[in-house]
Amino acid sequence: MNSRLDQLLRKEIEKLKGAELYRILKRIESPMNPTVVIEGRELILFSSNNYLGLATHPKLKEASLHALNRYGTGSGASRLISGNMDIHEELERRIAQFKNCEAAIVFPTGYMANIGLITSLAGKGDLILSDELNHASIIDGCRLSGADIQIYPHKDAKALWHMLSEDDEAFVDEVNRKRIIITDGVFSMDGDIASLPDILRVAEEYDAFVIVDDAHSTGVLGEGGRGTAEHYNISNSENLIQMGTFSKALGGMGGFVAGSEVLIDYLKNRARCFVYSTALPPSVCASSIAAIDLIDSEPGIRQSLWRNVGMLIRGLHDLGYDTMGSQTHIVPILIRDTGQTMKFAQALIDAGIYAPGIRPPTVPEKMSRIRVSLMASHNDEHINRALTVFQDVGRRLSII
């Protein structure tokens, strides 16, 4: 076809190519292990969100197969029609218990969980305060809600305080105005952790409530892997709503919101992403339940991940790289220039390491980087090999 629409789109694609922003899919031909086969070549994988290596764990596969044989391949309908199975409710009970909350609701994806939660709670006349580095699903949820939106500087609780103070003065008589602070727990491109205690103190002072997106925290942060709240020893807060995913450290698929029974009951009735979406396949629910059980029973998996984090970050710092203050399993390596970043990423692939370049609009201009994400299943050989390649490529491209 050569329609006018195709012609217009080709021009836009050429603009993307010219700006080093054109993206292509990499085809993986193997399981999500520390090494993968990409287009016929075996590479060490440093870009997966499979942080605990559970996506290929025998217990998750066994649980998934058992559910597949019992329930079949799909749920057949949305939860409010005929797609609500006992295994969906079991998963919700398990994640609520895991998050130390009264109840939980499961969505088909984490993206849909954020869209459904934010658009259900916020509307015209309400105020959302969102961290400037929040995930795209939060940004889209805020925009779709119709609420007033203010973006606060990254992790800046003092700025939040001033924003809410000004809002208090401007809307002194607006008793029905909801004020919602939204933050990632672990920021997906920077690897740092939200200052949740400071945010909650500000929220309590100004009668706001807080949504923390624990997509990259669940299964990883905290003594029991329960996420950002546990990391800070926050056992319970009436002002806190926890959102998260099963698709990262838990090795499966889907999203969730955990909070009070009233909140969850409300979302079942008002969250369009829940009401109008077919329920998760039972086999996917089963693997997530098995993942929660593993996180509870085998803390050594999480300890292996943190050991790998320390080993890699120390090595990168010794080489002179800027890891942007990462505190977690997500380790950005700042390059800044987009062209150099993409040359760096290709040189890594040529040397047997897959850690892609991240560029605008995913990150701000002049902040392009290599994003490394670690797994508990990486071993010393994988990490030492990566450090050797980062040294060689960095020196050749005059990055270090």
Would you tell me the overall average pLDDT?
96
Per the principal axes of the C-alpha atoms, what is the gross shape? globular
Question: Which structural class should the secondary elements be placed in?
Answer: alpha/beta
Rg, rounded, reads 22 Å
Tell me about this structure.
This protein is of the alpha/beta class. Helices cover 44% and strands 16% of the residues. The strands form 3 sheets. The chain has a 7-stranded mixed β-sheet, sandwiched between helices. A 3-stranded mixed β-sheet has the order 1-2-11. It has a 3-stranded antiparallel β-sheet with strand order 10-13-12.
Can you tag this structure with a few keywords?
15 helices; globular; 13 strands; about 400 residues; single chain; 3-stranded mixed beta sheet; alpha/beta; 7-stranded mixed beta sheet
List the helices and strands and how they pair.
Layout: H1 4-18, E1 35-38, E2 41-45, H2 58-71, H3 79-83, H4 86-98, E3 103-107, H5 110-121, E4 127-131, H6 136-145, E5 148-152, H7 157-170, E6 179-184, H8 196-205, E7 209-213, H9 228-231, E8 240-245, E9 255-259, H10 261-270, H11 272-275, H12 282-297, H13 299-319, E10 330-336, H14 338-350, E11 353-354, E12 357-358, E13 368-373, H15 380-396
Parallel strand pairs: 2-11, 4-5, 4-6, 6-7, 7-8
Antiparallel strand pairs: 1-2, 3-9, 8-9, 10-13, 12-13
Helix pairs in contact: 2-12, 4-12, 5-6, 7-8, 13-15
